[in-house]
Amino acid sequence: MRVIASDVKAPETPAGDPTPASEKVAALVELLRNRSYVEIRQRMYDSPPGSPWWTACRAELDLRNGQQFGEAALAMSRTSDKMRASLQHFEQLADTLHESTKDVADLLRGTQEAGRRLEIAVYVTIGITLVQFFNLIFEIFRKHR
User: Fold this and answer.
1) Which of 57, 79, 94, 105 lies in disulfide reach of 44, CB 3.0 to 4.6 Å?
2) Rounded Cα gap, residues 125 and 96, in angstroms
3) Tens digits of per-residue pLDDT, 109-131?
4) How many CB atoms lie within 10 A of CB 43?
5) Integer Cα distance of 57 and 102 in angstroms
C-alpha cells in the first residue's frame, strides 16, 4: 500500500498538543524527501501559501534546487579547469605553429636565394656554352678558309 503525503498527519507531542509549526514543517519535509518534483509542486500548489505543507514543499524544492545548483557549480568549475588547461595547450600549440611557420619561411627565403644563385649559374653556363659554341664555329670557319 502506498502512503500519500496528504494521508499523513503532522506528529503530535506525547501530551496530545500539536507540535510547533517549525517541527511540523521539518517532519513534512522529511516525508517529501523521496517524492518527485511533480508531486511536490502539485502539493505546493494545492496548499495555501504559508501553510505547513506549502512551507515544507517550498523548503524541499529550495533544498533540491540548491543541491542541483551546487552540483552545477562544481561541474562548471571542473569544466572551467578543463577549458583553462585546453587553452594553455592551444596556446602552446599556437606558439609551436608560429615557430614552425617562421622556420619554414626562413627555409623558403633560403631556397629562394639558392634559386636565384642557381638561375645566375644557369645563365652563366648558357653564356659560356654560347661563347664556346661561337668560338668552335669561328675555328671551323677559320680552318676551312
Assistant:
1) 57
2) 42
3) 999 999 999 999 999 999 999 99
4) 21
5) 65
Q: How far apart are CA 50 and CA 47, in angstroms?
A: 8
28 CB contacts (<8 Å, ≥6 apart)? 5, 10, 52, 53, 55, 56, 57
Residue 1 has which C-alpha cell?
Answer: 500500500
pLDDT of residue 18: 53
Which residues, listed in sequence order, are joined to residue 131 by a DSSP beta bridge?
Answer: none
pLDDT tens per residue, range 43-62: 888 889 888 888 888 888 89
Taking the complete model, does pTM exceed 0.70, yes or no? no
The CA–CA distances, whole Å, from 66 to 18, 21, 72 equal: 30, 23, 10
56, burial (CB in 10 Å: exposed 0-12, middle 13-18, buried 19+):
buried
How many whole angstroms separate alpha carbon 46 and alpha carbon 144? Answer: 128
